[in-house]
Amino acid sequence: MAAIPAAAAMAASNMARAAVRAAAATAAACGTRLADSVPREIVDDIFAHALKKQTGVSLKYMLDFGANPIERQLVLSAQFLQKELPVRLAHRVAELENLPYGLSSKPQVLKVRDWYVESFQELRSFPGVRNVEEEGAFTDLLRHIYRRHANVVPLMAMGVSALKKELSDKSFVTEMPEIHQFLDGFYLSRIGIRMLIGQHIALHEPPKAAHIGLICTKCSPWQVAQDAINDARSICLREYGTAPDVSIYGDPSFAFAYVPSHLHHMVFELVKNSLRAVQDRFDDGEEEPPPIRLVVAEGGEDVTIKVSDEGGGIPRSGLPRIWSYLYSTAKSPVQLDDSVVESGGPNVLAGYGYGLPISRLYARYFGGDLQIISMEGYGTDAYLHLNRLGNVQEPLP
Ligand SMILES: Nc1ncnc2c1ncn2[C@@H]1O[C@H](COP(=O)(O)OP(=O)(O)O)[C@@H](O)[C@H]1O
Ligand SMILES: [Mg+2]
C-alpha cells in the first residue's frame, strides 16, 4: 500500500469528521435521519466506520492475489473484505445523509441509503471467517449484497432527476457542482466495491482460460471493441433503421490484462455517442454517412483507444457539460421510472446523460482516463487511456 503523506491523511480525516458532523445536523433538520429507522448502536457503528480510512488495492495486486486461489487465499480475501467493505459502505452512508438541496430526503436516495445500511449490518453481524465453510457462507452473503445493489445507478439517477426538475421550476442553480462531485465519488466508490466483491465471487467459479476472476490476462481490445460495436450498432439499427459503419484499426492479436466487462462498457458508450451524432447529421440520406474510426494503440504505459466520428462535434462552450450527470441532448430524454430502474437502466442509444461520466470513472478506476476533443462543425475524438501496468492504487473517494 502506498504511504499517504501525513498532512494529506490528516486533512482527509478532518474532512471525514466534518462530513459526519454535518450529516448528523442536516439529517436532523429534515426528519429523515438514519436514527429514525435504525437502532442507535448501529448508527454509532456506521459513523465510527465512516471515520476509518479505506484501503485500496491495485489491478496488479488482484492479479497476484488471485493467481492461485487456494483455500487459504480465499479465506484471507474474505477476511479482508469483511473488514474493508463496512468501512467503504459507511463512508457512503455518511455522505448520503448529507447531500445538499434536500437530495438526501428524496425517496430514491433514502432507499439507496437503506440498502447500504442493510449490507453494512449484514457484514458486521457475520461471525468471523476462519475456515473454508465460513468462507463459503460469507461468499453467499456477498452474492446477496452484490444483487441488492444492482440497480443503484438508475435509482440514484431518478432521485437526482426529480431534484433537477424541482430546482429548475424554481429557476435557480441547475449546474449543482456539489452534487456532481458527490455522484462522481459515489459511483467511483461503487465501481471499487463491486470490483472487490465481484472478484472474490468470480474466484469461486470454474476457472476460465486466461482469466483471474474478472480480470482477463489476455484481454484483446480489438475483440472487445468489436463486440461493443456490434451491440451499439444493433441499438442504432433498431432506433434509426440504419447504422453507420465502424472500422477498427490496430493489431487484433494484441492483448493485455484488463477487465473485459469494464472495457466493453466504455467502448460501447463511446461508439453509441458517435453513431448517434453521425446518424443525426446525415439523416437526410443524401450523403453516405462517413464511417466511425476506432484505433487501438499499444504503448508502453497506456493502451489508448480513439473513437473518431464526423458527427459535427460539440460546441466548445458545451464541453464541460458533457461530463454532467444532468445533461443530455437526446431528443427524447429517457423518463426514469420504476420499470427502467428494475431493468437496470435504459437500453437506448442516448438519453440518460450518464454514458460519458460513468465511462470516465471506469477508466480512472484503474489509473486511466477519458478525454473528449471536439471540432465543432466537423466531429469528435474520444481518447480512452487505459493504464497498462495496473499497479496504480484504486482511487478512493
Ligand atoms: N461523439 C459525439 N458527438 C457529438 N456530441 C456528443 C458526442 N459524444 C457525446 N456528445 C454529447 O454529450 C452528451 C452527453 O453524452 P453521454 O454522457 O453519453 O449521455 P447521453 O448519450 O445519454 O446523452 C450527449 O447528449 C451529446 O450532446
Ligand atoms: Mg451516450
Question: What's the short version?
Answer:
Its main location: mitochondrion. This protein has about 400 residues and is of the alpha+beta class.
Task: Write structural notes for this entry.
With 397 residues, the protein is α+β, with helices and mostly antiparallel strands. It folds into two domains: 6-209, Butyryl-CoA Dehydrogenase, subunit A, domain 3, CATH 1.20.140.20; 215-387, 2-Layer Sandwich (Heat Shock Protein 90). It is 53% helix and 11% strand. The protein has helices at residues 6-30, 34-37, 40-50, 59-66, 71-96, 107-125, 132-148, 152-169, 177-202, 221-240, 260-281, 338-342, 355-365, and strands at 211-212, 215-219, 246-249, 256-258, 292-298, 302-309, 369-375, 379-387. The protein has a five-stranded mixed β-sheet. Strand 5 and strand 6 form a beta hairpin. The model has no long low-confidence stretch (mean pLDDT 88).
Question: Which keywords apply here?
Answer:
8 strands; Heat Shock Protein 90; alpha+beta; AK/P_DHK_N_sf; three-stranded antiparallel beta sheet; BCDHK/PDK_N; 2 domains; binds adenosine-5'-diphosphate; ATP binding; 11% strand; 397 residues; ATP-binding
